[in-house]
Design brief:
alpha+beta, five-stranded mixed sheet, three-stranded antiparallel sheet, metal-binding, Cyt_P450, Cytochrome P450, oxidoreductase
């Protein structure tokens, strides 16, 4: 099958609404070769749900980024803490990192954090009043997860806003220099933080606990820095978009919003459908084929990047009938917003708890909230990896 002539994931219309593009590509073929960038390179894009689920668990699709780019010319300058995270590794390296990261987000640990999450949300919304215009992104969905992750890591409160800015820049799709510079700011900052914790082993701060966990899990100093970087970057960017996308989806589907307004206890069960409907992860992080394989009837040669698109898979009509409709009664537990397999997001329980608390606050305290501007005037982040709003102006009600 002939590949598209231009990268469909770089079209400005894709950033505003990727779903028509995904639909066209999936209807043509759920696994197909597409151009990436402007250098004549190609990748394979997976847009079908069963194909994406299969690809997430295929060991022939490696996440070892360093292995793929070894010996290839590149003008990129990412900090190693960003380029060599758990997300860019395979077992056994990935297994060691995962063993340390997973206990941070167990159901019990997240349950213990819920009172703190509530206090943070209450503090962020303390000045909110009916009739007031607020930006949900700037005032709630962005500061909430960065506050939680920084609290877990012991990042001083005075540094958190700057760290959030660097993380935001790391997802800039328009300027690789901005991305590379942000990676070094994050990596250098966390290296200093980890070195300080390692130099004072008797202290009992949150980062000291993580450092001890890393040492017991056979992670060295650089691997500890990379894990801290991953927790901050992945732990707040996607949750910010999860909350923003969920609120927008509810406001654009008044019948669904009414369901939650009448019974806020439905919110936990609604989260999967909200994640499915507008996934905060549009295209999963980098994978490459280590040998020839076939997925969905399409042959993928060894040595090619493979892009799995949860945003597309979650709107596959063969798996989720009427996928563009937000249906809170739908069984959406098979969505792929958190990934699947050994790389499934370990922070999913914390993200769900944060989103649940934010939505409960909105529907109980401000049940008549509405958009402050037309939905088609909203500005979306220009990145294909994540799907999220730059701002979400609301009139509280």
């Amino acid at each position: 099958m002939t590949a598209p002539r231009q990268d469909p994931l770089r079209d400005p219309r894709f950033f505003t609404d990727p779903y028509p593009t995904y639909d066209r590509l999936r209807e043509r073929c759920p696994v197909q070769r597409i151009p990436t960038g402007s250098g004549g390179h190609h990748a394979y894009l997976i847009t079908g749900h069963p194909e994406a689920r299969e690809a997430f668990t295929d060991p022939r699709l490696s996440k070892d980024t360093a292995r793929f780019f070894a010996g290839r010319p590149s003008d990129r300058d990412l900090h190693p803490a960003i380029s060599r995270t758990m997300l860019a590794s395979d077992p056994p390296t990935h297994t060691r990192h995962r063993r340390v990261a997973t206990p941070l987000f167990t159901t019990g640990r997240v349950r213990a954090l819920r009172p703190y999450i509530t206090r943070v949300v209450d503090g962020l919304t303390k000045a909110w009043r009916p009739g007031k215009e607020v930006d949900l992104v700037a005032e709630l969905s962005l500061p909430l997860p960065i506050t939680l992750i920084c609290e877990l890591l012991g990042v001083p409160e005075s540094d958190r806003a700057e760290l959030a800015t660097w993380s935001h820049d790391l997802f800039d799709a328009t300027d690789t220099d901005i991305v590379d510079a942000a990676s070094h700011r994050i990596g250098d900052y966390l290296t200093d933080l980890v070195d300080t914790a390692r130099a004072t082993p008797g202290d009992d701060g949150p980062l000291h606990s993580l450092v001890r966990d890393c040492e017991e899990g056979d992670l060295d100093r650089d691997e500890t820095v990379s894990l801290a970087a991953l927790l901050i970057v992945a732990g707040h960017e996607t949750t910010t978009h999860f909350i923003g996308n969920a609120v927008l989806a509810l406001l654009r589907h008044p019948e669904a919003y009414d369901q939650l307004r009448r019974d806020p206890d439905l919110i936990p069960g609604a989260l999967d459908e909200l994640l499915r409907h507008d996934s905060p992860v549009s295209v999963a992080t980098f994978r490459h084929s280590t040998e020839d394989l076939s997925i969905g009837g399409t042959d993928i040669p060894a040595g090619f990047p493979v892009l799995i698109a949860p945003g597309a898979a979650n709107r596959d009509p063969a798996h989720f009938p009427h996928p563009d409709h937000l249906d809170l009664d739908r069984d959406a537990t098979g969505h792929l917003a958190f990934g699947h397999g050994i790389h499934r997001c370990p922070g999913a329980p914390l993200a769900r708890a944060e989103a649940e608390t934010a939505l409960r606050t909105l529907v109980t305290r401000f049940p008549n909230t509405r958009l402050a501007i037309p939905a088609d005037s909203l500005t979306w982040r220009r990145t294909r990896l994540t799907r999220g709003l730059a701002t979400l102006p609301l009139i509280l009600g």
